[in-house]
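Note to self: the last two entries modelled the partners one at a time, which told us nothing about the interface. This time every component goes in together.
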Amino acid sequence: MQAVSSAPMLEMTGVSKRFGGVQALSNVDFACGTREIHALLGENGAGKSTLIKIMAGVFRPDSGCMVLGGEEMKFATPRDATAAGIACIFQELSLMPHLSVADNIAITDPPRRFGFIDGRAQRRIAEEALARAGAEDINPYAPVSSLPLSRRQMVEIAKALARNPRLLILDEATSALTAADVARVFQVLKRLRSEGLAIIYISHRMSEIAELADHCSVFRNGRHVATFAKGEKTDMQVVEMMIGRELSHAFPPKPKHGTNGAKPVLETRALSWEERLRDISIAVKPGEIFGLGGLDGQGQMEMLLALFGALRSVSGEILVEGRPVMLSSPESAKRCGIGIALIPEDRKTDGLMLPMSVRDNLTFAALDDISAAGVISSRAESTAVADMVRLLGIRMSDASSAVATLSGGNQQKVVIAKWLLTKPGIVLLNDPTRGIDVGTKQEMYQLLRRLADEGSAIIFYSTDYNELIGCCDRVAVFYDGRIVRLLAGDEITERALVSSALNIPAADVAAAEARPPV
Amino acid sequence: MNRLRYGLLEHRGTLLAGAVFVVLFSVYIANYQTGLNAAVATTVANKGVLLAIVAMAQTLPVLTAGLDLSVGMVFVLANCIASAVVVGSPLETAFGIVVVLAAGLACGLLNGLVIVYGRLQPIITTLATGAIYYGLALWLRPVPGGDINSDLADALTGQLPGGIPSMLAVLLAVVLLVWVPFRNSVTGRAALAVGSSEQASYMSGIPIERVKLVTYALSGLLAAIAGLLLTFVTYSGEASSSIGGTYTLNSIAAVVIGGTSLMGGYGSAIGSIFGAFVLRTIGDLLFVLDLDPLWQPLFQGMILLVAVSLSALRLLKIRNRLDLFS
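The predicted structure of the combined assembly is written out below.
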């Protein structure tokens, strides 16, 4: 355990911020010392994001003061915060896709010679920063748009490190990363801590917080609830603090013997695409929640896109209710047989039209059902919207308000509701709980089980092993585009998931299990 | 090796536009009775350089994901001012040139100020300010006329020793003095960043307001340089709305043919120069191939469509339909 120095690097006292009718932060005190990793916990909408955006100069607080390194700070723009030595790695990436990796890393203050950007020095800076972040494999000349999401996030981290910050803020910075990258980032963060940085860390993954954080602060409804040192509270106590109520069973019970007799509604035979999917054959029955597991980026997302008609030149066969189907677009998937729906990973780009109203967003996919001769029936629309708002417990001021004004969890509910309105027989979910608060997650698990009980087939990709263990009847573990292991029932354990995700042969795992613990 | 590959990728638009120009120009010369000589090159240069510089002016706002519909009007206004002040002794002429360039800079700066601080869309803002600049031009020159320092005009529209058209030298100077420094400056880099993602730029601490101001001001300056050169070619000033409108639209076409993305974040003024010469060469080609000049707009339109389609070629390679939209 590191000794926390006496003088805090950052001290905020009495900070309040109001947006229209919502009190996002009320009278919050917060401090983070040097050589400290301080985790912020709370549901979405608890005020964490607002707090760090104040630190980053994005918002100005209505009241309260902020002291950094002994000096009072008043930031007007992110530029001021950067100049004061604060670097943020946000959930929404702050990279310019057309520019190269090196351009991006050096963008805030590029090295200059005779007033012009010095390309060679910039390359050196970029390489150093990438090395510090443990991502030497990234070419500094590559345009950011050519990199996959997990690599971009590493560039984002390198970009923050290149500024040599005094205070580093990570907001869900690891949620897009592969497990190997997370481990490297953790090493980097621990090293930076020993070098004297103050680090503020936001994550919804309790295991990450347990590994990293020296202190945790819990927020709820814009208020600071408690700050405690590592190990003082159990996970369950923390969760209770976050949601402010007793936590019932996180996952709904699984049916004991469910679907053995039924015929599969969705089958694939030797499905292959590019280098990302190799010879995938699965059969999913109605009433079943079928998980896709494995490390991030092993082909699970492509699998869902292939089933939703979003990929071209897919080889192999897809059968719905036993009949081969040709899926040429999401529209054809939606109309195919019993109907297929995909809840996308990124609700902001693939799921919602953010400036449009909740009502419009909810009924987009099902307009055919509520219209006659091309004219939308406003009565049918209102009924459909009201049903869904009630069914999913979507919290909002009014159905005509822009969906962008909702919290992340409620936005995700809108995405799901939109597809439920099409009454799909097959529901594909692409990591739907990423960046969503605990309460909403639980509601979602209940909903998935209810849909399955009503006869839908559900294919559920999650990067969170606990979800796969808690929700799924079977889990197919992907590795390098192949299914390396199919786990069913009690076989779905964290150990089995992790070992097969790393493609460790089952025999070795069994041998390890047989051996007495060291 | 990687560096070369990414370099080629970065400049693919410019390289392609340059290749198209070389092909078209070769066909033109092959069919021209006298072949390539200094006089032919000078005529081509005098016609092409004006549009090339206006297209450079258009490129800068487009890189930031904006658009400047006033470049043609600033071009005309500069022409009218020049026909009044770029006369007399060398000192007076020099002063006149400074006045013309300052006027262009001021027009561009005004565009930038309204767009940045009025938070208005560039397309509407510059449509409105363009009308204002045209009104000023009309007020200055209700009827065509005026004069210009003819010694300077003859020198600039003629040839350098060795038969190289002077206008090409002027174009080279503009590239070296305006575009190259801009492209390698922190502001130029920031302009591309803003065009690529304005939100990410803001979060990276880039002074977006200043970047846009500089970009639009430079655009006005370049348009004024072109207007000044127009005066050297025509020896007079004319407040012609058709010239202004044509140059504006052709400048956008040249930018697209030059491989610059209208969505911002990617492209180069060098590509736009080639784009401008491609457009001009099409007209000349019709002439040597003995086609009715009435066909010119049709052919220009077709070339433009081909250019836009080329940039859509990558869509054929896409295996994930979601990438069609990014």
